[in-house]
TrEMBL record:
One Pfam family recorded for the sequence: Methyltransf_28
EC number in record: 2.1.1.320
Protein's UniProt name: Protein arginine methyltransferase NDUFAF7
Subcellular location, record wording: Mitochondrion
Source organism: Oryza sativa subsp. japonica
GO biological process: methylation
Length: 446
């Protein structure tokens, strides 16, 4: 994948953009790292982030950041005034970040609502699922938009379901949405793990929408390793060093089904056997013996798991996902490596080793949107049809598009609403390392 466009962003401004990350509730059942048994990297990441006793998000004090009122961007002079205003907001609320939905309310969620309304099949009642609804701001704003702009029948018959594992956030969402009394009959919260297929009940063949906003960056990932340019990839496991809480890596042949499947989807293990390729591989083999260069690649196995679940439960879903396509200043090695950062005494520290994340550090990953598309197609069954086409050419089951956030907002939103007096627009200018992924079925499956 070609490197996405990324403006030159100083550290302070990077934090200003990164502060818009979602403060998620735990989406996975957590487990304590065993003393005498190695665990996969995804289990280490899950525990470091979500364990109820020592996980990063369990330790975070204070609720998801909620602004008392919308920011009036047209009253701010420019970038400097906006940054000063943000600084005051963070000191006032004493939190690490606000979500983009919150910073740019209602306009960010309005753009998402407009994209849904433009392409939804309005002959059936509109149903929207949001994975990890945070404070409920997105749900309220989308319901507001539908009430104000959609045909009355659409608003009156629609359902908006938040899939949220945190009971405290579920209560907050009901409180936020309940500010408009008529919304409550359309809104509900289901406190459960979104990756658990059983929680979705029987397969629902009806069209619906699924929103995942800043969710993918905190999903557990796995790691594979090769000691040189030609050796096979191996799974990375973590074991505790004797007498210490520090972990160390252990390498095993590929055997975990989720890791193996993700390796297959990424294609990193594929080697063509043409004469030219054989000569190239032979040359690489010689070079690797003289100058061995270890290879590492992070695999979005958490993304694979949740998309598998969603496609099984909601085969006619339309998906909107937004997240970071690129993270600056990452020092941890490997393709799609995460940024691991902690805050001490008001200062942010980026770690060079992900194993230093012991519950006091956030671990978040960039999203390779082209790989996301491949995973989406694989989970929907299209990739399997391609491999076994039979007598007929397989019909593509998904239509997908990847847009820079600025392009998405210009297409569906009202960017003039987030522009300052001198023309600076934080929604368009500060989020150039974020993208939207839209995936819709090519036809409704009966």
């Amino acid at each position: 994948m070609a490197p996405p466009h990324m403006a030159s962003v100083p550290a302070a401004l990077r934090r200003a953009a990164t502060l818009a990350r979602w403060y998620p509730a735990a989406m996975f059942s957590s487990g304590i790292v065993p003393e005498n048994k190695p665990i996969l990297v995804r289990d280490f990441v899950r525990s470091a982030l979500y364990d109820p006793n020592h996980g990063y998000f369990s330790k975070r004090s204070g609720p998801v950041g909620v602004l008392d009122s919308s920011i009036r961007f047209n009253q701010l002079d420019g970038r400097s005034a906006y940054m000063q205003y943000l600084d005051k907001l963070y000191k006032k609320h004493d939190i690490a970040w606000f979500t983009p939905v919150e910073l740019f309310k209602p306009w960010y969620a309005y753009a998402i609502a407009a994209s849904i309304l433009r392409t939804a099949n309005l002959s059936v009642p509109l149903k929207i699922y949001e994975i990890g609804g945070g404070s409920g701001t997105c749900a309220k704003c989308i319901l507001d938009y539908m009430m104000l702009n959609a045909p009355p029948k659409v608003y009156n018959t629609m359902k908006y379901i938040s899939v949220e594992i945190s009971s405290s956030l579920a209560e907050k969402q009901l409180e936020t949405v309940g500010e408009v009394r008529s919304h409550l009959s359309k809104f509900m919260v289901e406190c459960r793990d979104a990756t658990d297929r059983a929680g979705w009940g029987r397969k629902d063949p009806q069209p619906c929408w699924v929103l995942m906003l800043e969710v993918l960056d905190n999903l557990p990932h796995d790691l594979v390793y090769s000691p040189d340019q030609v050796s096979p990839w191996m799974e990375v496991w973590i074991e505790k060093v004797n007498g210490s809480s520090q972990g160390s890596e252990v390498y095993k042949p590929l055997q975990d089904p989720l890791v193996s499947r993700c390796v297959e989807i990424t294609g990193i293990n594929e080697e063509k056997v043409s004469v030219r390729d054989k000569l190239s591989l032979a040359a690489k083999g010689v070079v690797s013996k003289v100058f061995p260069k270890p290879r590492r690649a992070w695999l979005p196995t958490g993304c694979l798991k949740i998309l598998d679940t969603l496609h099984q439960a909601l085969p006619s879903m339309s998906l909107i996902a937004s997240d970071f396509s690129y993270l600056p200043d990452v020092s941890i090695p490997g393709d799609r490596a995460p940024l691991v950062s902690s805050k001490k005494d008001g200062r942010t520290l980026d770690h060079r080793n992900y194993l230093e994340a012991q519950g006091d550090a956030d671990i978040f990953f960039p999203t390779d949107f082209w790989l996301l598309e491949k995973i989406d197609h694989d989970c929907s069954g299209f990739s399997k049809q391609q491999k076994n086409p039979g007598a007929f050419k397989p019909v593509k089951t998904r239509r997908t598009i990847i847009l820079d956030s600025a392009a998405f907002m210009e297409e569906f939103g009202l960017p003039l609403k987030t522009r300052t007096k001198d023309g600076y627009n934080p929604l368009l200018d500060d989020f150039r390392n974020t993208k939207f992924y839209l995936s819709v079925p090519t036809h409704n499956k009966k």
